[in-house]
Amino acid sequence: MKWATVCVSCVFAFFPNEPANADETVISSVLENGGFEYPNVREPMDEGTVPSVWFHFSSPPDAGRVGLTTRCARNGRQSLFFKAQEDTDAYQTILQKIPVDAGGSYEFSVYVLNSAQDPIVGEAFGQISLEWKNAHDVECDRTWGSTWTAGLSTNLWQRFLVSGTVPYEAVSCLPAITFFSRDIRNHGIFFVDDAAFVC
Length: 199
Description:
By secondary structure, this protein is mainly beta. Helices cover about 5% and strands about 45% of the residues. It contains 1 helix and 13 strands, in the order βαββββββββββββ. The strands form 2 sheets. The chain has a 7-stranded antiparallel β-sheet with strand order 1-11-8-13-5-4-2, covered by helices on one side. Strands 3, 6, 7, 9, 10 and 12 form a 6-stranded antiparallel β-sheet that branches. The radius of gyration is 16 Å and the shape is globular. It starts with 10 loop residues before the first strand and ends with a strand.
């Protein structure tokens, strides 16, 4: 996987501890369920429940460990969490497919928090990206954003953003959130909330 490759047209940045602006995020974002409020979960940490509208992929297949939680939320009642997989060098991602206009500029952002009880450690990292698909649903390009690692705060939500220009052949974009477990197995959790995709 070419996670280090960055599109020349991409501009990405990391904005620590940015104050909440939930109203603007909700109004301007074309993402659905960007606050991960659906479905409602009963367990405090409901592993295996993928947020509505999003879809999940993992390598190895069916080895993902994502879920929804009521233990930690930046806004609303719930947030998304990723937990390290059992296999070394495994990865897992959630994505949402959105139609886009060729030549347009879009940005994807999320707020992320490390778990105080079970933080990510070692060489594990999370990252957001934009996957551009053509009319045949084939990926034609990918724009990678900056990463969060073991140094991620356990008490302050931090905002990560990736932006890029739509390739001329692309008709849709899949904003993605990915966790690369690398050298850790079974331990390590981070939370995600208030995802937004705007033009």
